[in-house]
């Protein structure tokens, strides 16, 4: 184990098995980057909440960096609209859009601009979002990338998703939709957003990795664990009930991803109950 790997394992509180689990993924990314023949390589990484996508993105950046490649990482979460902007959406479109999460609650054209700038090898700025405060960090804390990297990893819970077929929108998927979106206006708006500017962003991805968690039931336990760690680190965050309600906003498209993404991703990685990666 190299010193940087030992440090990574300690920082992220992982077991040594993470290194052997992640190594085939590192090698796959290196091979795909080589196939790009020196062109800027934008790698999409999709995984449900708590699946480990942010940790994997950080590990890939560290491993590839150790091999001499320059890598930047950004999350779709960093492009969330401010509470004020979401409040306006809630007023003009549907009250559920007050809560961050679904397509329509991101500054998606800003994300498109970032990836297009990367592809053109221009300098760009990566925004950052403070989840504990539910608002973007002030711009002086954003990351200015003056020398464009070899690889940009773009991770997010709905990265690469196609819009849902209309037949799937007919019935509510959980109690949140049944109670607050009986007419289907909210889910139709979200799907329309996903079909438009989000596809422009996703078309810029050169490859897509999908972390397949098998079932949405795991998301609650993993997201709960994630939130508890956040509260321990920052002293602020959601309680267990708030987490249970929050993930309902993500259920519809997470379930759609479980159905659709294995067929369209370039690499599907199964995440088992112990959070181990399995490539079949």
TrEMBL record:
InterPro entries: P-loop_NTPase. Keywords: Kinase, Transferase. GO terms for molecular function: kinase activity. PANTHER family: URIDINE KINASE (PTHR10285). This is Kinase.
């Amino acid at each position: 184990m190299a010193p940087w790997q030992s440090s990574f394992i300690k920082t992220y509180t992982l077991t040594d098995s993470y290194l052997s689990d992640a190594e085939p993924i590192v090698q796959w990314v290196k091979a795909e980057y080589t196939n790009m023949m020196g062109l800027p390589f934008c790698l999409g990484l999709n995984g449900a909440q708590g699946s480990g996508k942010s940790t994997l993105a950080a590990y890939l950046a560290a491993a590839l960096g150790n091999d001499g490649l320059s890598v930047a990482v950004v999350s779709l979460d960093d492009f969330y609209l401010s509470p004020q902007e979401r409040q306006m959406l809630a007023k003009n479109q549907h009250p559920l859009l007050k809560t961050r999460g679904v397509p329509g609650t991101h500054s998606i054209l800003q994300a498109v601009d970032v990836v297009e700038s990367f592809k053109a090898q221009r300098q760009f700025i990566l925004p950052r979002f403070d989840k504990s405060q539910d608002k973007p960090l002030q711009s002086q804390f954003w990351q200015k990338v003056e020398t464009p990297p070899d690889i940009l990893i773009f991770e997010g819970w709905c990265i690469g998703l196609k819009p849902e077929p209309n037949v799937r929108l007919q019935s509510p998927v959980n109690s949140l939709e049944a109670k607050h979106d009986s007419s289907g206006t909210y889910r139709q708006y979200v799907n329309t957003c996903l079909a438009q500017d989000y596809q422009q962003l996703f078309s810029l991805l050169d490859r897509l990795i999908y972390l397949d968690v098998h079932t949405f039931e795991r998301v609650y336990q993993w997201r709960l664990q994630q939130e508890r760690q956040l509260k321990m680190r920052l002293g602020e965050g959601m309680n267990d009930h708030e987490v249970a309600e929050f993930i309902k906003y993500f259920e519809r498209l997470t379930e759609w991803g479980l159905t659709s993404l294995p067929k369209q991703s370039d690499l599907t990685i199964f995440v088992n109950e112990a959070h181990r990666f399995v490539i079949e």
